[in-house]
Each structure stands twice: as C-alpha cells, then as structure tokens.
Structure of MBL fold metallo-hydrolase:
Amino acid sequence: MPNDGIVEVGSDVYLVPGSSTNWVIVKDGDTATLVDSGYPRDRERLLASLAAVGVAPSAVTAVLITHAHNDHIGAAEYLRLAHGTPVLMHRAELPHARREFLHQVSVGQVLANGWRPGVLPWAVHALRAGGTAHIPVVEPQPFPEEGGLDLPGRPVPVLTPGHTDGHCAYHLPDAGILITGDALVSGHPTSRRRGAQLLPRMFHRDRARALDSLTVLEGLDADVLLPGHGPVLRTTVGIAVEHARELAV
C-alpha cells in the first residue's frame, strides 16, 4: 500500500490522510499513540502508515478516539482484538462507540442536501468505504486519569462537544500541536470553503455546542493544528478559531 501523503508535522508526529479522514501517529521510540483510525476500508492504509514510520501494530500503546463516527473508528476494534490495544475516549462517547445509539448524518439528511456540490460523490465514497457498516468498539475505555495521559506524546484530552456529545480534541503541549478531530477542520469534500472551519451543519449533532467548543480550543497554546478532515493548519489556534467563526456566520 503506498504511503504518499504522510506528513511529519513535528518530531515523531505524523498526520496521515486516509481515503477521506485523517489519523495521527505520535511516536516515542518504537511505540506510538494512534489518534483515530479512518474508515473500515482504510485499515490496510492505516497498517501501512504505521509500518512507514517504523511502528508495529502491536506497539500501538493506545488508540485515542476523537469521536465514534465510522470514519474515525474504522480500525479501532481490529487493533483491540488483534493486539489487545486499549481504545480510549471521553466517558460521554463510550455508549456511542458501543453503538447503543448512533449520532451520525442520516441518509435522509444526505438526500435533502444532495443538491449541494460534492455531497452525492462524498456519500457514494462513504458507503464504499464502510460509512454505514456496523463496527462497534465492544469494550471502549474512558481515559484512566485527568490531564495528560501516560502515553507517547503525553496527549491531553480536551472535551469539545457538539459534533458528538463526547467529542475530544487532543493537545500535545510540549510539541505545540493540537489534534482537533471534527471540532475544527480545514476542508471536506462537501465544503467549497478553505481553511479553518466547522463541518457543514448536517454533520453535527448540536451545531450550537460545536460553535461554543471553539472557545475551549481558543485558549490552547498550539501553532500546528491537525484536523480530522483536510490538510494541516500551520497557524495559531486563535487565528484558526476566528476564521472558523467568520465562516460560520
């Protein structure tokens, strides 16, 4: 599997573009923290990206989940079953990951927005990539402690609800990096906008809360932002949030 597109954004921190969704590898020697894991059919690409940066799947210390949509948890259960990798997320996201319910854009919402540029091609891709597959994480775990986690990169979970109830960003304070997931993105196939932005309205469980969560991000010290969709943003969080707010009006 080719590994074109992997971007080393800091020392041992890599942004990897999947078929439509990014994941992040944070290395420490031959171990790593993996943040998100793409669509179900991105699995081979994900495994290839680990190999490309010198990490065996069994050496992934944990999978951190920003939120439990199918395009972010696609390989999480595979890693848990195959290698015993813990899959960690905010407590509010656990039942979502177990698929006790599913807060994800519906077919009806997609059809209602089908006239918008890019929506139908994106929907076809999402279906082919496993966007509607039933892939619960059977035993997701909450973060074991408050503050920085004892994992490669010492990531600090930052609760940013709105896209889903338990959405989390992950701050790497020592590296000046913020992994924003879908709380703040830099592009999407259904958006014609460029730069820092919220996802289109149909993708959020509660768009008002998603806007409020930008305030939480705004106070963090980082000048490299790694979104769940779109390219790396090399700017301060404050500037990115200001741009996203302007586009959201």
Notes: The mean pLDDT is 94. The longest helix spans residues 207-218. Helices lie at 43-52, 76-83, 94-97, 107-112, 119-129, 207-218, 237-248. The first strand starts at residue 7 and ends at 10.
